[in-house]
């Protein structure tokens, strides 16, 4: 480890190495561990998303901060879109499975890497260009109400509202709304803006973030397909995707809500022209978007 600090990520890597080589997994580099380290180049094996995963999208804390430091990015301790992009770039650079999960193999590779070399793997120019474009999206007013994310005239059943006990009680989704629509339902932009993310993650599956004039981003998750790319400008009512059942989902639906586009933190309940801020489970939401 080149930074000289025996922190959480190094401890995790040592334990993984010990388990892979049938040693006592205590995280301490004793004589037996040194012996195996000096005699072999064995790397631990793992399956993405297994119980051996260290951190993943949506996690936060000291271990996430340690990973971010090793990647050479801002260490805020929150595993959001920027960290996901950096992890995937690192995995690509190291010839690892590109799943965005910091599991055993990625942890092992990070433990042998210094921040300077890891940072080289992180895309720079494209993200900066997107950030510059995202600062000036087209919207009449930063306080303009949103419109429901479906074509005008479509009635979407609300299966869970903000603060729902089923799953809407966490830092990243407490203000969100779930619409129980069939997979393949057209999804349209609730506000004009710039796409800052359109990719798969293990939690939200196929996910789109669109930053509008408020400075925040609208999240559309669990999509079956996506029609837009980062940096693309969209207008309110434009079709951007089709709903689905991807990622951590118990059935076809659209997960919709306002987040901080930098870290997925849920900001507030979306005020729509159709329903204001009242989204009652078991009722139909009639869209007038378009």
TrEMBL record:
InterPro entries (UniProt xref): Cell_wall_metabolism_enzyme (IPR050570), Dup_hybrid_motif (IPR011055), M23ase_b-sheet_dom (IPR016047), Peptidoglycan-bd-like (IPR002477), PGBD-like_sf (IPR036365), PGBDSf (IPR036366)
Biased composition (Low complexity): 115-125
GO MF entries: metalloendopeptidase activity
Pfam family membership, one: PG_binding_1
Boundaries of every M23ase beta-sheet core domain copy: 177-261
Peptidoglycan binding-like domain sequence ranges: 2-37, 73-110
Annotated region described as Disordered, given as residue ranges: 115-138
Gene3D superfamilies: Glucose Permease (Domain IIA), PGBD-like superfamily/PGBD
Chain intervals with Basic residues compositional bias: 126-135
PANTHER family assigned to the protein according to its UniProt record, in alphabetical order: MUREIN HYDROLASE ACTIVATOR ENVC, PEPTIDASE-RELATED
Listed name of the protein: Uncharacterized protein
Organism classification: Bacteria, Bacillati, Actinomycetota, Actinomycetes, Micrococcales
